[in-house]
Amino acid sequence: MLMKEMEFLFKRKRLPKLVCLSVLLIGLASCQSRISKEQIASQRQEAIAQNKKLLQKQSKDLTKNWKLTIQGQIPEPITLNWSQIEALATHELNTAAPFPDKTQVAAYRGVSVEQLLKQAGVNVEAPENSQIEITSVAADDYYTIATLQQVREQNAMLAITENGQPMRRNDGGPLQLIFDLSSKVKTENGTWVYYVTHLIVGNEPLRLQIGSKTLNLAALERLPKHRFTRIVGYKHNWSSEPVQLTGVKLKDLLRSQKIKLSAQTAIRIRRKAMDKNNLQKSTLLSAELINNCDVMLAYRWGASQQAITTKKGGPLTLAYGKNCDSQFDRNLEWLPFVESISVEVVKR
Fold this sequence. Notes:
It contains 10 helices and 20 strands. The protein is an alpha+beta fold. The chain has 3 domains: 2-63; 67-201, Oxidoreductase, molybdopterin-binding domain (Sulfite Oxidase, Chain A, domain 2, Alpha-Beta Complex), CATH 3.90.420; 208-345, Oxidoreductase, molybdopterin-binding domain (Sulfite Oxidase, Chain A, domain 2, Alpha-Beta Complex), CATH 3.90.420.10.
């Protein structure tokens, strides 16, 4: 009986492996010492209580520095810390999840996306705003899109608890975008989003931070334009065929800001991230690479020179010309949502 209970608890991820093992060893020891069923039950409850404390600690560690930023076509960007998110999490939704192993209806609590957008200054009831796209960006760089109409009619919510328990990391926590699957209105791809860090309303204006300066689109367009045709290095909402990209060479941009490169310096390009100092959300480019191949910050695409929208990872994308592939590493990382550039000293 005890073995079956352990198997069930482990499969449901209710108990960490170490706790499962400790309870199992207690059970085996009890067979040898013939302790009472009451003692077994008491020890089992102690192990479950210990497991609950561990899960609570993990949840606190996960949410300690978690932030949610709302930006884009709103009066001012808003960033909420976890305490503020919790205070807004008064919305409840009962729904099944779109996952094969989670077919049961669960009770979720979280922040209504519609109410959050209202607080950010979006007129959610205006008919002309119904097709505004809301982009949800995750900590693992995934992002997806739903229209404002879909958000409202499908009761979108940023969930922080499931069946009364904090959303765990392996279940999409601490902040997961969910939709009411009983609704007749469906999102673009019906995808829930794990680890949400950003909501982008429509298409945000281009802002590139270089040191203490912030450059806008007009500032970049005053610099010499550069174009090349390539398959975009990340696939989100781009064709698998080559497209024309237009922007500014990184070396021209640096020159305009009087930034000189040397063998001892490199340039750090950072994309949108919850933690601006997270190096995993950036790439470091050597002076040799920047000076000798077409490293470009692209802001338009196609023959008609369309702006690179949020849906495509815009307004600013780090891209590489073909000569970068031939001269340097073929696995150069293209970055969507580029937000800042900084100079770093290279350690040798």
